[in-house]
């Protein structure tokens, strides 16, 4: 059994053929998919999709660092009211992205801290996106006393030193198709050393299709290629990777147990 812990099913590349995307995922052994929100509209779409595919699709609510500048008091209030109504299993994706910097560093930090506070207030795990922002992400998590929060560093692409720092704060690490890309050697070394009880796998579809599907539209069924690469790197069976990653995901996102 596989869980794709991070996909964007509301994106048009996937939503236009969602029934078939889900069918192909099931055939590939993917039993559950977390559809991650990147803004208000996409979070509500993810929730709608989770209702269309109960027991298969689960939704999170969040504001991506790219859109951090759109956060104002009204949006904060709306996020809280959606969370009071329920139907979400996590907060995010949130975090910091200094590679693209579509929002200022200050706005990104404010939106990140707001979503960390939601994670604590509503006792939901947080999905963290961090790109070229490792030290600042760690600084914020430490200052927010992240040991009280739980969550995952999604689409991890750093080295073992950074991975270890997140593990020490109690976070899970999620690996995407980037681990199959030719230049990702430091990342592959980190995969080898990551403890078995602390990782999951994800597609981040429709982006980042893994080798051998690179360049195509990514979709949840391709999570098997990421599992295969983790198995190869760790020198363990494919089934063992599936078992650990699913078990770990269910330990963090409790509703996945149902
Ligand atoms: Zn992301
Ligand atoms: Zn994402």
Number of domains: 1
How far is the first residue's CA from the last residue's CA?
A: 14 Å
CATH architecture group name? Alpha-Beta Barrel
User: Which ligands are bound?
Assistant: zinc ion
Spatially, the strands of the biggest sheet line up as 1-2-3-4-5-6-7-8
Number of distinct beta strands: 8
**CATH homologous superfamily title:** Metal-dependent hydrolases
Briefly note the CATH topology name.
TIM Barrel
**Uncertain parts:** none
Shape, per Cα inertia axes = globular
Count the helices. How many? 10
Q: What's the gyration radius in Å?
A: 17 Å
Strand proportion, as a percent range, falls in: 15-25%
Question: Briefly, what CATH class?
Answer: Alpha Beta
Helix content: 40-55%
Q: How would you characterize the largest beta sheet?
A: 8 strands, parallel
Going by helix content, strand content and strand pairing, the class is alpha/beta
Mean pLDDT: 96
Order of helices and strands: EHHEHEHEHEHEHEHEHH
Binding site for a divalent metal cation 1: 6, 8, 93, 204
InterPro entries: DNase_TatD-rel_CS, Metal_Hydrolase, TatD-like, TatD/YcfH-like
Keywords: Hydrolase, Metal-binding
Binding site for a divalent metal cation 2: 129, 154
Describe this protein's structure.
This protein is α/β, with parallel strands linked by helices and 258 residues long. It has a single domain, classed as Alpha-Beta Barrel (TIM Barrel). Helix content is 43%, strand content 16%. The protein has ten helices and eight strands. The chain has helices spanning 12-15, 18-27, 40-52, 73-85, 105-121, 134-143, 160-168, 185-193, 223-234, 238-252; strands spanning 2-7, 30-35, 57-61, 90-97, 126-131, 151-153, 172-175, 199-201. Helix 8 links the parallel strand 7 and strand 8. It is globular. The relative contact order is 0.15. The model has no long low-confidence stretch (mean pLDDT 96). One zinc ion binds next to loops. A divalent metal cation 2 binds at residues 129, 154. This is Putative deoxyribonuclease YcfH. Belongs to the metallo-dependent hydrolases superfamily. TatD-type hydrolase family. It comes from Dissulfuribacter thermophilus.
């Amino acid at each position: 059994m596989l869980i794709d812990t991070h996909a964007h099913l509301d994106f048009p590349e996937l939503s236009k053929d969602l029934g078939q995307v889900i069918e192909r995922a099931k055939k590939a052994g993917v039993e559950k998919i977390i559809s991650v929100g990147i803004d208000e509209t996409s979070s509500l779409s993810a929730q709608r999709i989770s209702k269309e595919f109960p027991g298969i699709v689960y939704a999170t609510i969040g504001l991506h660092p790219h859109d951090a500048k759109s956060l104002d008091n009204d949006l904060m209030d709306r996020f809280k009211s959606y969370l009071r109504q329920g139907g979400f299993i996590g907060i995010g994706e949130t975090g910091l992205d200094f590679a693209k910097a579509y929002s200022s560093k200050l706005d990104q930090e404010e939106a990140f801290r707001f979503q960390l506070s939601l994670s604590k207030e509503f006792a939901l795990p947080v999905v963290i996106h961090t790109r070229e922002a490792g030290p600042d992400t760690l600084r914020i998590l430490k200052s927010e006393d992240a040991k009280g929060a739980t969550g995952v560093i999604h689409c991890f692409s750093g080295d073992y030193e950074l991975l270890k720092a997140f593990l020490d704060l109690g976070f899970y690490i999620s690996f995407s198709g980037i681990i199959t890309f030719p230049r990702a050697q430091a990342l592959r070394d980190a995969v080898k050393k990551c403890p078995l009880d602390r990782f999951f796998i994800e597609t981040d579809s429709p982006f980042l299709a893994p080798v051998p599907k690179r360049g195509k539209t990514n979709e949840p069924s391709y999570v098997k290629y990421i599992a295969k690469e983790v198995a190869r790197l760790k020198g363990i069976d494919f089934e063992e990777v599936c078992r650990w990653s699913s078990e770990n995901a269910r330990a963090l996102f409790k509703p996945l147990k149902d």
